[in-house]
Specification:
Structural class: alpha+beta
Shape: globular
Strand order of the largest sheet: 1-2-3-4-6-5
Number of helices: 3
Distance between the termini: 26 Å
Strand content: 25-35%
Number of strands: 6
CATH architecture: Alpha-Beta Complex
Number of domains: 1
CATH topology: Aspartate Aminotransferase, domain 1
Length: 111
């Protein structure tokens, strides 16, 4: 994991750290090209070209920003989607790995 990401996530509880790591790995596994990890406005971001996915950690949940979340909104009906189109996954909720894999793959495709 990117050292800046490690420092940022270190202040969070173990559950948030584990969720962050699982989702980070899922992002990396969703595409066959190299992903650039960097902070954008102090937010962990994963880039392929201009396309990105962001994971925003909070005390009791993670927000995931990816342009294709809205495409899969019906398949994510058990989760909250913010007015800005971010997916919220709260502690205790199972990570929808199959659907997120599709979201990340489509979001990070080079045009």
């Amino acid at each position: 994991m990117n050292i800046e990401f490690e420092q940022l996530i270190a202040i969070h509880n173990d559950e948030i750290k584990n969720m962050f790591c699982q989702i980070s790995e899922l992002i990396k596994d969703s595409v066959s090209v190299e992903i650039e990890e960097k902070l954008w406005a102090k937010l962990p971001s994963f880039y392929v070209g201009e396309n990105f996915v962001r994971i925003i950690p909070f005390k009791d949940h993670l927000n995931i920003e990816a342009k294709e979340i809205i495409t899969y909104k019906s398949e994510l009906s058990g989760f909250k989607i913010t007015p800005k189109g971010m997916l919220q996954i709260f502690l205790g909720q199972e990570i929808p790995q199959e659907i997120l894999g599709k979201v990340f793959n489509k979001t990070l495709q080079l045009d």
